[in-house]
Design goal:
The complex is a heterodimer of chains A (249) and B (503).
Chain A lengths: L5 H27 L7 E3 L2 E4 L7 H23 L2 H4 L3 H4 L3 H24 L2 H16 L4 H21 L10 H20 L4 H24 L12 H17 L1
Antiparallel strand pairs in A: 1-2
Helix pairs in contact in A: 1-2, 5-6, 5-7, 6-7, 6-8, 6-9, 7-8
Chain B lengths: L1 H18 L2 H19 L5 H12 L5 H18 L1 H6 L9 H49 L4 H19 L4 H15 L2 E2 L6 E2 L13 H9 L1 H7 L19 H23 L5 H15 L11 H25 L5 H12 L10 H24 L1 H7 L4 H20 L2 H19 L5 H23 L11 H15 L3 H14 L1
Helix pairs in contact in B: 1-15, 2-3, 2-4, 2-15, 3-4, 3-9, 3-14, 3-17, 4-13, 4-14, 4-15, 6-11, 6-13, 6-15, 7-8, 7-19, 7-20, 8-19, 9-17, 9-18, 9-19, 10-17, 10-18, 11-12, 11-13, 12-13, 14-19, 17-18
The chains are: A mainly alpha (249), B mainly alpha (503).
Chain lengths: 249, 503
């Protein structure tokens, strides 16, 4: 089959989606049996009947999910999805799109898991904005890889140097991320001479996180990530020690 | 008559209190501007605007100001979607998809100014129609809803999930229902609401309190948009804006019947649980094409076609708030985010809601629509400039906004992991044509469904007839069963035969 219409391609993808959903439903039905369904004690309450057991609704939900997943599988097979399932189109495999998606996920993962908890928010977010605009604005795979590399180096350094929560206040990983950010900014400005997007990127990368974190911390008085970060700790100190007394006077 | 009078007096009081507070204008102008900007930028949606502002304003300022910010952004974003539809032929939001069909041909024909001006006026009148319906019907329904007990609430929650699954799915209805069930399943995580029995926590203490609403909203609506939008795209050609934007009174009067009809349709569609502005726009467009004298011109640059969809999607806002405020069931995806904001403020929408909040919501909607009207007419050229910003430039900033918003609501890094996890799942669901809105509605209503379903059985000592013994419950049960049955192949075949016989 050379030419596949959208519907058949969608059914091929439904084939895999329904198989995954069946596995997930079966797994959670099995886990639901850990919760006493028939008479027993739940949450310290004795004499719980089947109808007010904590398992009854989740069991219904996962059984319904299983039934619908089987129905989706049946429909997918009936409409030719299974026949196309192992085909490149059926799998939804597109090398350019796979590269774009995978690099984005790596960038997001390092930002959320490694950088936000450990590195100053302004530095981590500035690096992220620079990497994303540089990497994806022009759509060139080499740029995507370089952006991912920048985030990976900073993220891995933060994870390796200060994995446990007790060490998240340390600043050496902040310096590494700051260095990578500066290097990427200079590189993107050098390569993007004449490009207005390249020129405006550093302004957005510094301005957006700075304004956001200050608004959150000082206007809304909310918890913000990594208060002890390299830059934010200084801003917070001067806000309360230098600026606030001046305003009070 | 007395009822209407008392409503108007109550609304008047709330309105005066609102307009006499200078801070109202600060939040209103800022949020409507932000909303129009979000709507105007292709890749950002009204749901995302309300979701992000929920993270920022949800529980950080008094509820009144929080509602001004969220409703202002909601009204602004639904209207803002018309800009790229008309000027670029790219719908800014799903709600404006029908708008592009007539808006862009009008702009290409040199009538862009006229199209924008009439769209702005129609959106304003549409919002007012929806708001009036909200003011009138919400009270009547609130009186009825006082008699709603646990079985009806459980069946209503189920109906909301099933209906949104059925109507929001672009491919198969079964996919919408699967999305709704995944949402329901996510709501089962944590301590159960009646016995505090831990469920699916896998020994992780963070999971004991269940999935938090704001990170789920951010993950479901923001992350897939960011992943999908971070790609190189050819810049669409911006059509030159020509002509006067402020419409003439005669033109508005001429199209008033179309605007009124579309406003009523939009409000009605919005009042259906879980059905959003995009459906309202298309339904109104379809009706307009059938009943309008210039129906054959629809899709080729018809002002009536343009106004049919644009009025309806804004009127849908008031309609979508009716089930939210009366029953605690969101009427549209942005209303789902709004419900999240209510919940993090410990305000539970539904029959027990403080009536003064409803009056304030109505007053805010009127002010927000007026602000949108003025901004639309007099600052339209500013928003057209915003259309030039590439999405690869603003989407990274959206990621920062969602990160800090998610973090500050719960105050923990675990919320960010949840946001990212939900986001990746939602991206794949989008790719496989599973709608996201039923999932989020499932997460939000799941807790209520679980509690009400088991409470009903507990009170009836396990007798399942409790779901059919009361008239309202019996009607709701019949609706749920009819909705499910309508998708069964033999029933579908039979319905098809009947339809063919009628035609």
């Amino acid at each position: 089959m050379d030419i596949h219409d959208d519907k058949t391609v969608m059914r091929a993808r439904d084939f895999w989606a329904s198989l995954l959903l069946i596995l997930v439903s079966v797994f959670f039905i099995w886990r639901t049996f850990d919760i006493p369904l028939l008479a027993g004690t739940q949450g310290g309450v004795k004499g719980v009947e089947w109808f007010n057991s904590a398992a009854i609704v989740p069991l219904g939900v996962f059984v319904a999910l299983l039934i619908l997943s089987v129905a989706l599988l049946a429909r997918s097979i009936r409409e030719g999805g299974a026949a196309l399932a192992l085909d490149k189109v059926g799998l939804g495999w597109n090398p350019a799109e796979a590269l774009r998606f995978c690099t984005l996920i790596v960038i997001f993962l390092f930002y959320i898991v490694a950088l936000v908890p450990r590195v100053d928010f302004i530095i981590a977010s500035g690096l992220l904005i620079t990497a994303l605009i540089y990497g994806y604005h022009s759509g060139r795979p080499k740029r995507m890889l370089l952006a991912t590399l920048a985030m990976t180096v900073s993220g891995l350094a933060a994870l390796i140097l200060h994995f446990p929560q007790s060490e998240w206040n340390a600043h050496d990983d902040d310096w590494i991320a700051l260095g990578v950010w500066l290097a990427l900014t200079i590189w993107s400005l050098w390569n993007g001479r004449g490009d207005p997007v390249a020129r405006v990127t550093p302004v957005i990368a510094i301005g957006a996180p700075l304004v956001l974190i200050c608004a959150m911390a000082f206007a809304f008085r909310q918890n913000v990530p990594n208060r002890s970060g390299l830059l934010f700790s200084k801003i917070e100190y001067h806000y309360y020690v230098t600026l606030a007394p001046m305003w009070r006077q | 008559m007395d009822f209407l009078l008392s409503q108007l007096i109550g609304f008047g009081g709330a309105f005066v209190a609102l307009v006499s507070d200078p801070l109202t204008y600060l939040y209103l102008i800022g949020s409507v501007f932000l909303g129009i900007t979000f709507g105007a930028l292709p890749g950002l949606t009204a749901t995302l605007a309300v979701t992000i502002l929920t993270g920022f304003f949800g529980n950080k300022i008094p509820l009144d100001y929080s509602l001004i910010a969220l409703l202002g952004a909601y009204v602004g974003a639904i209207y803002g979607g018309s800009y790229p539809s008309i000027m670029l032929n790219i719908p800014g939001t799903a709600a404006s998809a029908a708008t592009a069909m007539d808006g862009h041909p009008l702009a290409k024909a040199g009538r862009g100014g006229e199209a924008l001006g009439l769209t702005t006026t129609a959106s304003f009148i549409g919002t007012l129609i929806g708001t009036t319906a909200l003011l009138v019907f919400v009270w009547a329904l609130l009186l009825v809803s006082k008699n709603i007990a646990s079985p009806e609430k459980a069946l209503l929650a189920l109906f909301g999930i099933l209906l949104s699954g059925a109507l929001m799915s672009e491919d198969l209805v079964i996919k919408g229902w699967i999305a709704g069930l995944i949402g329901l399943a996510m709501a089962m995580v944590g301590l159960d609401p009646l016995l505090s029995e831990p469920r699916y926590t896998f020994g992780w203490s963070y999971m004991l309190s269940g999935f938090q609403v704001v990170p789920v909203l951010m993950g479901a609506f923001a992350i897939p948009q960011i992943i999908a939008g971070m790609r190189h795209t050819q810049r669409a050609k911006l059509t030159q804006l020509t002509g006067r934007i402020v419409p003439s009174f005669a033109a508005v009067r001429r199209y008033l019947p179309t605007i009124t009809r579309s406003g009523v349709i939009g409000t009605g569609v919005g009042a259906l649980p879980g059905v959003g502005e995009d459906v309202a726009g298309w339904v109104s467009y379809g009706v307009g094409k059938t009943v309008s004298k210039e129906g054959d011109k629809f899709g080729k640059g018809s002002i009536e076609g343009l106004l049919s969809s644009e009025t309806a999607n804004n009127a849908c806002i008031g309609g979508a708030l009716i089930p939210l405020l009366v029953l605690g069931i969101p009427g549209s995806p942005p209303a789902t985010a709004l419900m999240g904001a209510f919940m993090i403020n410990n305000v539970i929408p539904g029959p027990t809601l403080d009536p003064s909040i409803i009056l304030r919501v109505v007053a805010i909607l009127v002010l927000a629509s007026f602000t949108m009207f003025l901004m639309g007419l007099f600052t339209a050229r500013v928003f057209i400039r915003i259309l030039r910003i590439p999405q690869t430039v603003f989407l990274p900033v959206v990621l920062i906004l969602t990160t800090i918003g998610s973090f500050s609501v719960g105050g923990g890094i675990n919320d960010l992991y949840l946001m990212l996890g939900v986001g990746v799942v939602a991206y794949f669901m989008n790719m496989l044509a599973f709608p996201i809105a039923p999932l989020v509605i499932g997460v939000i209503l799941g807790g209520m469904f679980d509690e009400m379903f088991r409470r009903s059985l507990f009170l009836s000592d396990g007798d399942l007839s409790v779901f059919a013994s009361r008239p309202a419950a019996a009607v709701l049960l019949a609706l749920n069963l009819a909705l499910i049955a309508s998708q069964l192949p033999p029933v579908k075949r039979a319905l098809g035969r009947i339809r063919r016989r009628i035609v």
